[in-house]
């Protein structure tokens, strides 16, 4: 029976950013370490070490609140380059055991080790070996969850954190999973949870026992899926190259901004960053969105779909300008602004419907410029070369001169 079940593992690093900082500066070991933005820039907590969590500090909390709860904490800025490097190291360890690795974020991945067992021992042995290798080679702790589907593996990795190892076998669904609150299920947002709780459904087990017709009536297709998952049914495969759904950058200003030229300059930089990321991931996108958050926290998102997939700065920035022109009233104060490109495809999956009458000289010029800039930036790491900025206003779309 066991051999017919899949062996799915979920690995999640413990207090990832903070643990890396503690590793690299031993004086920080055992101390409350908080990594995130600055108070001045109205930043939020990216993560807090387990010592800091005792004071109630957690991810996404405004820094001001974190300082209030933990005034003696050690506050550090985010060093993405370093965390990405560590992420690549752990992902490389995973790949030694299976090609079926689905990275969910920098510090988290699903592994399908069903076929690896012949070579490397039981799934439990593989999980323990992965933990040991991460400790030995990267000097960090990971929590491993093991089960027969993704939902249960992810639930398991969270059960014994930090430095955890937890397995949920098919016969343990009732004893280990059903007593948990429904909020622990993926896809159960607080609204859904509140509604179910009002009906007296508070545990995953109660949900598993509910009438599917009623669930479908209340929550549609999602209700049926939740019922299946609660009963241990989740056939989603581990998908090795998981394509991100969008690439975006946004920034919260230290002070609200209402000057058009400032907003435009910032959008220019954000767009340049987004396009650079698209190109370095061999992705192109078709939908361009802007996000504007006003001082009262009210936000709008507006999108436009282009005619062709692109990762070039010029068409994306032209779309951004067009969106601003139609959706932003000059002089209005803005708290946050963002740009993102979605509707993505891998470069090699795009079949260009070439417009026979289109003069593609400009397109060629843009491609050449992009690849030169990317290769220089790739070589010297980061932002060596940037486009020079010519301020044009929303109404004159940026053209490459
Ligand atoms: P998580 O795995 O959610 O958190 P964690 O690794 O810090 O702690 P643990 O898993 O032990 O509970 O996220 C991984 C990293 O992603 C985290 O170290 C920082 C970053 N992150 C943010 O920047 N903002 C967020 O809101 C969250 C949740 C995470
Ligand atoms: Mg983590």
Walk me through the structure.
The protein is globular, with a radius of gyration of 24 Å. The chain is built from 15 helices and twelve strands. The chain folds into three domains: 1-169, 2-Layer Sandwich (Alpha-Beta Plaits); 178-230, DNA polymerase, domain 1, CATH 1.10.150; 246-380, DNA polymerase, Y-family, little finger domain (Dna Ligase, domain 1). With 401 residues, the protein is an alpha+beta fold. The chain starts with 7 loop residues before the first strand and ends in a 21-residue tail after the last helix. α13 (260-280) packs antiparallel against α14. It has a five-stranded mixed sheet with strand order 5-6-1-7-8. Mean pLDDT is 89; it is low at 353-358 and 395-401. The chain has helices at residues 16-24, 50-53, 63-69, 80-95, 117-120, 123-138, 150-157, 173-177, 190-198, 204-208, 212-219, 221-230, 260-280, 313-327, 361-380; strands spanning 8-13, 33-36, 45-48, 74-76, 101-105, 108-112, 142-147, 165-167, 246-257, 283-293, 299-310, 334-346. It binds thymidine-5'-triphosphate and magnesium ion. Residues 12-13, 16, 107-108 line the site of magnesium ion (MG). Thymidine-5'-triphosphate (TTP) is lined by residues 12-17, 46-47, 59-60, 105, 107-108, 161-162.
